[in-house]
Amino acid sequence: MTLMIHIDDSAPPYEQVRAQISEQARSGALPVGYRLPTVRGLAESLGLAANTVAKAYRALEADGVIETRGRNGTFVAAAGSAAQREVAAAAQGYAERARRLGVSEEDASGAVRDALRAAYG
């Protein structure tokens, strides 16, 4: 696992850790079942506070990317299908809300494209 924290980046360090681990898990660079470093271990290797890494791990666990197995450690979870279901449900909810508000399909799609560009850069 390779993580790079850029101090001059506008994203806070915990978000950089979260995004990089999430991307590596999604791409398969971190396979399902891969054991992640401890919070303290990763914080030390990155030169961050333990609370910063803990915040990233909590967000990743809430997103279903990782799972903590007590004293056994923290592992990359098999969350692909769960993540896809959640995204599909969110998209369905958005589409229904846009229709109820009287927004055209073209304008609703444009809003999604703008939001995705903002989120993914």
Provide a count of the helices: 5
Radius of gyration: 17 Å
Question: Which blocks of ≥5 consecutive residues have pLDDT under 50?
Answer: none
How many β-strands, per DSSP? 3
User: What is the H/E order?
Assistant: HEHHEEHH
Please list the strands of the largest sheet in the order they lie side by side.
1-3-2
Query: How does the helix and strand content classify structurally?
Result: mainly alpha
- Global mean pLDDT: 90
**Fraction of helical residues:** 55-70%
How far the N terminus sits from the C terminus, by CA atoms, comes to 23 Å
Characterize the main sheet: 3 strands, antiparallel
Approximately how much beta-strand content do the residues carry? 5-15%
Instruction: Tell me, briefly, the overall form.
Output: elongated
Jot down its keywords.
single chain; 121 residues; mainly alpha; 3-stranded antiparallel sheet; 5 helices; 3 strands
Describe the structure.
- It is a single chain.
- The protein has five helices and three strands; from the N terminus they run H-E-H-H-E-E-H-H.
- It is mainly alpha-helical.
- Strands 1-3-2 form a three-stranded antiparallel β-sheet.
- Helix 1 packs across helix 3 and helix 2 crosses helix 3.
- The two termini are 23 Å apart.
